[in-house]
Specification:
Number of strands of chain B: 2
Distance between the termini of chain B: 127 Å
Strand content of chain A: 15-25%
Radius of gyration of chain A: 32 Å
Shape of chain A: elongated
Largest sheet of chain B: 2 strands, antiparallel
Oligomer: heterodimer
Radius of gyration of chain B: 52 Å
Order of helices and strands of chain B: HHHEE
Number of strands of chain A: 21
Helix content of chain B: 55-70%
Number of helices of chain B: 3
Chain lengths: ~550, ~140
Amino acid sequence: MALLTAVILGRLVLLQGLDGTAYAAAASADRLREDVLAATRGQILDANGNPLAYTASARKIYADPSLVDDPVRTATTLSGILGAPVNELVDKMQADNRYQVLADRLAPSLAAQVMELDLAGIGVEVQPLRVYPAESVGAAVVGFTGADGSGLAGIEQAYDELLTGTPGTASYEVGRNGAVIPAGERTDQPAIPGGSVQLTIDQDVQFHLQQQLDAQCANGSTQNAQGVILEAHTGRVLAMAICGSFDPNTANEADPDTLGNGAISGILESGSVAKAMTLSAAIEEGVVTPDDVRLTPDSITVGNTTVRDAHPHNPINYTVTGILAKSSNVGTIGIARELGNDRLEQYLRAFGIGEPTGIELPGESPGILVPHQEWSIAQSINIPIGQGFALTTLQMASIYQTIANGGVRIPPRIVDSTTAADGTVTESIQPDGVRVISEETAATMAYMLEAVVGEGGTALNAVIDGYRVAGKTGTAQRPNPACSCYAGGGFWTTFAGFAPADAPRYVMSVMLQRPDAGVPAGPVFKNVMTFVLAHQAVPPTGAARPEFTLIV
Amino acid sequence: MAAAGTARTGTAEPNSTRPAPRPQPPALRLLPAPSPTLRRGPFIVLVLALVIVGTIGLLVLNTIIAADSFRAEQLVQRNAELAVTEQELQRQVAEGLAPEALAAAARELGMIPAGQPAFVIIGPDGSIVIQGTPAPAGVR
């Protein structure tokens, strides 16, 4: 009797005193459930707060084939609601596993309709869905997300951490049937939703630019078209586009080659658009003034490289303004030889060639510019006219932003601000400007570039009725990657400029890649810039275009 | 007894060497026996009342908590439904605001892009300069 009592007492002490906490913990672990609370991904907005990307809660309808009693009848019932062919649904419901997704990305109301039918073996799951309401508008900038919801391109990638947020947890006690015990222990660690990113892009301008570029690519021969619009005095990107943009809602189905942002990752040789840099350097260094006269033949030969003007002509007494307005290669090369390769390289680099702008987007190319010590003779006469070094369409716009902004280059930026989940707004800081040329030289260049656009210049097709426009056309041969030579590579036709010429507000660069040089980029500039000036309510300055002396 | 003891020590002479006087025996008397019928009744009633009130209170509290939890569940469900509705409405708004949708809707209404505006510039002396060429939309 005493022995029995001792055993029972001993066991009691063991259970209650020594093992007790372990059993209590096991019991509470059995009752406690922990759910991960997903953090909602933040929005991406345009400059006016229109959503370009946000996350909605969608539904996924799945079947457990082992529980579906009549696949044909079930499929017939579902086919109408889900908009899927009956035989496809039947195949899925007869599959040899226990989970088959019948339809996803559905509106919750549609899923509710399906659940009301109360079909055996059919279930619904919540699915976070990234929605891009503007579809392809701004897609190259905004980017897209992968199946796991992480950003894979553009802003979605660059700001992935901010947009993702921090998932939380909810732990609570449940009864045997899984129902929450009302007065049970409950701890919540709420999810912190992702912050939002507001861009400097205006979706209306972006849409118009994309439409115009798409129209170019739709003519059958243009293989690529890119455009960038900047605010003249801040370097903020108003629009940035490539033709044939994908729809980020269905990025997984798009041709992978179309998913990039060529305006920052692709490089081109800009052709005569670059003459603005050569002449800026020559004027800033006091090598020439706009009214200096140069007797210009139609070809120049250095070593065994000959460069010709676009059209044959007898030697002409061009003014320096005339050399730019008529886009004389020979005249520009002559001035560049007076300037020297070292000083030319120094100015090209000051204009941002060869270094990334630092825009808040992944995959930016710095362009290609080899040091002048390594320039061949052919390069030293081609670089002043925009061949033999490469830049992005964004850098091309940045060159003209420098001139439009009184000689100060402001590295372009595309994020206006970010807003954390708690409402803290972080405005992007405008990068420090880089003084490239003096204000005086910039004004002189704006004057000379205005001579290009209009009577006597090469860019009559970029004239905007009522406004004064400054800009420059370009055509460059494109290297053929197959042979590392220019034969068969096709052409880039380019245009870069700003308006109004006498009080610049917006700068735009355009690039078209074509098998021939037959379609100029000027009309795209004209069309889009006209829209931008009206849309952004920029009045004409009212001043008349000055008279220019191009030939004496 | 205690009172008698105290009286005794109270009267004792501290330095006296005389033997203490023999203490008087306490006067004992019979107390009336407590009446069991009168004392136990209220106590049982009290305990019973406490038990009953406690039980009913617990029941009421439990019922309230359970009812609240049902209500909470209903509200959560309603909240979820409203969130879904809100989300679908927001989606419609976002889709309607998208430039492509706006452009299509405008075309359907027979609208055309405004094209290039012309401007009337009024000088300080009241003179009028027209910049650009005025023309109805769609002409150019």
